[in-house]
Design brief:
Length: 310
């Protein structure tokens, strides 16, 4: 089956990728700064703690293994506030890590699935793949967006100069699921699970609840990445649900699956952020990459995991 490199293997999508690739019979090499307790004990899985910004260490890693594919799930997660206050934390690691990974894949002609982000888009009614380079990203996602746009551009530059086309670019929507960060710096669903669990009957939420997001379960993102790798799909595609979920509905769903009656106190002095985010799913439909798990089922799995491992 060959060996697959998964970067960011201790993260939300990376952990799902490791488990799913092992189930399919691959030998998996996972790289992250820290080993997660959620990673499996398996003779077909090997973990390395490597700072992927280090060019020498990345070259040694690729020399040591004959990877048949790479899924680059490396990413910097955090709230919009963190991105505004500490933009270097998003840009510096992403640019160095991704150029190191891409350089090695090009040199060895390895198929690469690069995980980009919904944040690369400007605010729009629907996010369509081929519109990105005609626009500028939202001010709310300015630095995180460029941390993903720059590696996308780097791949396109290799395509022009070196005729390298052995890559897929996937742009997931707002990802949630087990293995998420539920603590400091958590994104909206992780933070909501924690708030609801700790609540004595009411919680505070920012804005007025009307903004919508396209949420996708991390296991579905992992399935999409693996399918792109196995079928060597040289495409740029969204990975979303195509469904708009309001922040209000999201919080109510978390409350529902928790079994609690929760009163939501909306702090309208806090910003809503972008009002709409919905992914076009036309490319996903064409290549059978649509998610299999519904929003509420995904929330159930996520809350159940948090409740168990808090």
């Amino acid at each position: 089956m060959g060996s697959i490199l998964v970067t960011g293997c201790s993260g939300l999508v990376g952990t799902h990728l490791v488990h799913k690739l092992l189930e399919k019979g691959y030998y998996v090499v996972g790289v992250d700064l820290h080993h997660s307790a959620n990673l499996p004990e398996n003779e077909s899985f090997e973990f390395h703690s490597i700072d992927l910004r280090n060019t020498y260490d990345v070259n040694v890693l690729f020399n040591q293994y004959q990877f048949s594919g790479v899924i680059n799930a490396f990413g910097i997660k955090g709230s919009p506030m963190r991105a505004k206050e500490k933009p270097i934390d998003f840009l510096e690691p992403s640019i160095k890590v991704n150029t190191n990974i891409i350089d090695n894949c090009v040199k060895r002609k390895i198929w690469l699935v690069f995980m980009s982000s919904v944040g690369v888009y400007e605010p729009a009614e629907v996010f369509v793949e081929d519109t990105v380079w005609n626009t500028l990203p939202s001010p709310n996602d300015w630095f995180p967006s460029w941390s993903k746009r720059i590696p996308e551009l780097y791949l396109e530059a290799y395509k022009v100069q070196e005729k390298y086309e052995r890559f897929t670019i996937v742009r997931p929507a707002n990802i949630f699921g087990e293995y998420d960060n539920f603590g400091e710096g958590a994104t909206v669903i992780g933070a909501t699970c924690r708030k609801v669990y700790e609540s004595d009957g009411e919680i505070e939420a920012w804005g007025d609840g009307t903004p919508t997001r396209d949420f996708i379960y991390a296991g579905d993102v992992a399935d999409g990445c693996i399918k792109c790798l196995e079928n060597e799909l040289h495409i740029t595609t969204n990975l979303g649900s195509g469904e708009e979920i309001s922040i209000k509905r999201m919080i109510e769903t978390v409350s529902k699956v928790s079994g609690k009656e929760i009163k939501i106190n909306w702090d309208t002095s806090k910003p809503n952020g972008d009002m709409r985010r919905k992914m076009s799913t036309k490319v996903q439909e064409e290549f059978d990459l649509l998610p299999k798990l519904g929003f509420e089922e995904g929330i159930k799995e996520t809350y159940k995991y948090y409740e168990k491992t808090r």
